[in-house]
Q: What sequence folds into this?
């Protein structure tokens, strides 16, 4: 049971930022960032990913598995909620949290899955985890993209509506499995 929930955590953690990455340019333009500076947003997002991985390396080991998953995922949810209500030149910088979370998740979630898989089936199990992650990604990016086609803020709302219950349920299950 633990492996199933860790695979779900891996998939959700990787995809919560991935479903929104396409929206960075429209978000920056909607917020009023001059088009000549939009490319800098991509550079800053990449830089935030590196910082997120570095932060995870420093503190993730001190956290329980459910916290390693929930902390960056809930930070993304909070940022998307704020930006969906008030997307402006003053709040657009919060998008960097998605970069931080992506960097964190990329360095933390896969090792959490690897640590519970027996060595003789690791390649197969990790392939299943990656495939599952991609399977949930395809319909999610279509739904979230469709929601944002009329107003980019709706893509953020759709992401929150889809991911929040899944994140809370997965974090709760991971916490319960750590207690057992």
A:
């Amino acid at each position: 049971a633990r492996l199933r929930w860790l695979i779900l955590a891996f998939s959700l953690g990787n995809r919560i930022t991935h479903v929104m990455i396409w929206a960075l340019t429209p978000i920056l333009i909607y917020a009023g960032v001059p088009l000549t500076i939009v490319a800098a947003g991509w550079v800053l997002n990449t830089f935030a990913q590196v910082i997120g991985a570095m932060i995870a390396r420093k503190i993730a080991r001190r956290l329980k598995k459910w916290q390693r998953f929930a902390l960056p995922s809930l930070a993304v949810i909070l940022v998307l909620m704020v930006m969906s209500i008030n997307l402006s030149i003053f709040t657009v910088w919060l998008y960097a949290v998605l970069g931080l979370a992506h960097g964190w998740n990329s360095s933390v979630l896969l090792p959490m899955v690897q640590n519970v898989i027996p060595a003789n089936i690791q390649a197969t199990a990790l392939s299943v985890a990656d495939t599952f992650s991609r399977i949930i990604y395809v319909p999610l990016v279509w739904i979230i993209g469709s929601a944002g086609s009329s107003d980019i803020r709706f893509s953020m709302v759709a992401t929150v509506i889809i991911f929040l219950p899944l994140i809370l349920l997965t974090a709760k299950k991971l916490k319960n499995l750590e207690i057992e």
In short: The two ends are 12 Å apart (CA to CA). The chain has seven helices and no strands. Residues 152-179 form the longest helix (28 residues).
